[in-house]
Amino acid sequence: MIVISKYIVPKGYLGITIFPFMFLTAKALKENIVLINHEKIHLRQQLELLIIPFFIIYVFEFLLRLIQYRNWHLAYRNISFEREAYKNETNLDYLKMRPVFSAFKFFRK
After folding, report:
1. For the chain, how many structural domains are there in total?
2. Does 4 reside within a domain?
């Protein structure tokens, strides 16, 4: 379910997914198929990890990457879940062919 809210989405971002909702900053973004696909990938990741563990791992990995890179944006872009989503956001068939639990392969990089 897509919800429009500029207050829930952190400043500087277009959207955030918190299962089962996809929050976007503007109604027009509902037409951005690449962004929607990116957020759908996060929905699948959250389901695979039973939602709460996803967010625990996400925050923990972000903090590790922040220590590693000392740069907020670089840390965010190198979270394994974000790497998978950014790498595949333009492939609109990705979720149809994505193996179950494939998010785990990104931890190794």
Report:
1. 1
2. no
Q: Are 90 and 34 in contact (CB under 8 A)?
A: yes
Q: Angle, nearest 10°, between helix axes 52-69 and 33-48?
A: 110
Neighbouring C-beta atoms of residue 15, cutoff 10 Å: 24
Structural domain boundaries enclosing 93: 33-108
| DSSP states of 37-99 | HHHHHHHHHHHHTTSHHHHHHHHHHHHHHHHHH--HHHHHHTSHHHHHHHHHTT-TTHHHHPP
pTM, to two decimals: 0.91
> 18: helix, coil or strand?
strand
Q: Which residues, given as ranges, of the chain have pLDDT below 50? A: none
pLDDT, residue 107, reads 59
Residue 43 lies in a domain: yes
Structure tokens at 27: 């109604």
pLDDT at 105: 65
Q: What is the pLDDT of residues 42-72, one digit of tens each?
A: 999 999 999 999 999 999 999 999 999 999 9
